[in-house]
């Protein structure tokens, strides 16, 4: 058995946790979600979700990892024999996500180059779907898309090398480079976006509060959904990362810092994206509403169009935008891949390098499926099921098991309180035993209802 790895510094752990949290969800999911769910009024349910579920769950996961000192399956299994499968469920979800997350990062690498040479031409949508992804007939998955292979290989090479090197010299060092760089690049992007004509219109549209939204349960579900996804909760990640913390670590404080850092980045992204959308609306004589988009469409169809419209240094702006996606994506990919590397290594008593070769190698091979022509449909379907059911179920299993079956909350509370100046009170247990399961249960039923309608 190798000696358990440990972070070198507290900042190293925090940057790694932020690296996991700050991802594509902040850049392309949050802005559109906020806009569609009340704009400025969305911040109320969002903040509420952060404080009643996001940070409390983060504290719980950090404490579990720290107390039981293992990957998610190991830690949960140590808490109670029958709980190991909950950890594996989370690991499985992380595994599946990693296979397509890698492909999206590979696309962003290619698009960083296209930003400089303008390869996407005037019609950025038909370029993305047709020339780039080679989607010929909707729903058809065809042969291999050769141009994605090299960037995809680079993505996996970086990720697996970092993981193979280890926690302190690999994951920690990578995040110490990636995250500060990401913040600087992103600040440049936001400042540039704010100085474009029409930026104010975009911000107005983004912050304009629709107070009626507060009365809509769907808006609250969206807020909780965004918080869970964005903080990488119930993906086995935060348990794994906190298991590498030294014995004396202020867990509660770390959770607050991670939560607020992630939300700050999210707000920053919302401002940058909407400033740019406001510019585009002005250039194309449309309303901001007509150009709003999220997800893959925002990054690979709308942003190239915005870049086409920019008066000066558009290539540099575009390059920085896609470079940010790559950095945000890589630090998240490293974290999800680490969950199964750690899980498999502990379960089968393998060295880290062997676990990286087997687990990482397998996900790299599976990711080729999405790199095929038309693989986008495949990606969309898997992503839909993972997001609608996989994650919510993982979170629900976890809180119900810990709070109700193991009745472990008081023990975890005592553990966290012995290490922090911030004292967790009964409010913390109420958030986890009641609020979180009710919201997650409601979310699942809601998604199921939409599916069946
Ligand atoms: N938290 C990441 C984001 O906001 C998404 C993510 C989920 C990353 C799960 C890793 C694992 O983009
Ligand atoms: Na996030």
Automatic annotation (TrEMBL):
It is a multi-pass membrane protein. It is found in: Membrane. Pfam families: SNF. Keywords: Membrane, Transmembrane, Transmembrane helix, Transport. InterPro entries: Na/ntran_symport, SNS_sf. The chain crosses the membrane at residues 12-31, 43-64, 85-110, 148-165, 177-200, 220-244, 256-282, 319-341, 353-372, 384-406, 426-445. One of its GO terms (cellular component) is membrane. Its main location: membrane. This is Transporter. It comes from Pontibacillus chungwhensis BH030062. The lineage of its organism: Bacteria, Bacillati, Bacillota, Bacilli, Bacillales.
């Amino acid at each position: 058995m190798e000696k358990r790895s440990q972070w070198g510094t507290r900042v190293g752990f925090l940057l790694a946790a932020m690296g996991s949290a700050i991802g594509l969800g902040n850049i392309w999911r949050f802005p559109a979600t906020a806009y569609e769910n009340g704009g400025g009024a969305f911040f109320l349910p969002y903040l509420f979700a952060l404080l009643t579920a996001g940070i409390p769950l983060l504290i719980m996961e950090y404490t579990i990892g720290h107390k039981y000192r293992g990957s998610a399956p190991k830690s949960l299994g140590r808490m109670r024999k029958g709980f190991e499968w909950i950890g594996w469920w989370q690991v499985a979800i992380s595994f599946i996500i990693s296979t397509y997350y890698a492909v999206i990062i590979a696309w962003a690498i290619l698009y960083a180059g296209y930003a400089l040479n303008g390869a996407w031409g005037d019609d950025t949508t038909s370029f993305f779907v047709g020339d780039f992804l080679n989607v010929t007939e909707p729903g058809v998955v065809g042969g291999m898309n050769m141009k994605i292979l090299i960037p995809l290989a680079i993505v996996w090479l970086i990720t697996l090398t970092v993981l193979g090197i280890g926690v302190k010299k690999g994951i920690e060092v990578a995040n110490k480079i990636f995250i500060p760089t990401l913040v600087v690049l992103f600040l440049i992007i936001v400042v540039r976006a704010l100085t474009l004509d029409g930026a104010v219109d975009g911000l107005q549209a983004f912050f304009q509060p629709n107070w009626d939204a507060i009365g809509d349960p769907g808006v609250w579900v969206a807020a909780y959904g965004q918080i869970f996804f964005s903080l990488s909760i119930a993906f086995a990640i935060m348990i794994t990362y906190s298991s590498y913390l030294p014995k004396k670590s202020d867990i509660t404080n770390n959770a607050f810092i991670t939560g607020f850092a992630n939300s700050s980045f999210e707000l920053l992204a919302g401002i940058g994206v909407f400033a740019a959308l406001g510019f585009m609306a002005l250039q194309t004589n449309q309303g901001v509403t007509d150009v709003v988009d999220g997800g893959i469409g925002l990054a690979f169809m709308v942003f190239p169009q915005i870049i086409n419209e920019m008066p000066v240094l558009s290539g540099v702006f575009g390059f920085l935008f896609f470079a940010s996606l790559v950095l945000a994506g890589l630090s998240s990919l490293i974290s999800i891949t680490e969950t199964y590397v750690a899980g498999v290594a502990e379960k089968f008593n393998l060295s880290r390098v062997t676990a990286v070769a087997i687990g990482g190698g397998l996900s790299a091979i599976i990711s080729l499926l999405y790199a095929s022509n038309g693989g986008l449909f495949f990606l969309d379907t898997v992503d839909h099921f993972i997001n609608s059911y996989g994650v919510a179920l993982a979170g629900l299993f976890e809180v119900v098991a810990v709070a109700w079956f193991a009745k472990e909350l008081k023990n975890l509370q005592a553990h966290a309180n012995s290490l922090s100046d911030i004292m967790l009170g009964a409010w913390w247990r109420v958030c986890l035993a009641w609020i979180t399961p009710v919201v997650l249960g409601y979310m699942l039923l809601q998604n199921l209802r939409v599916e069946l309608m």
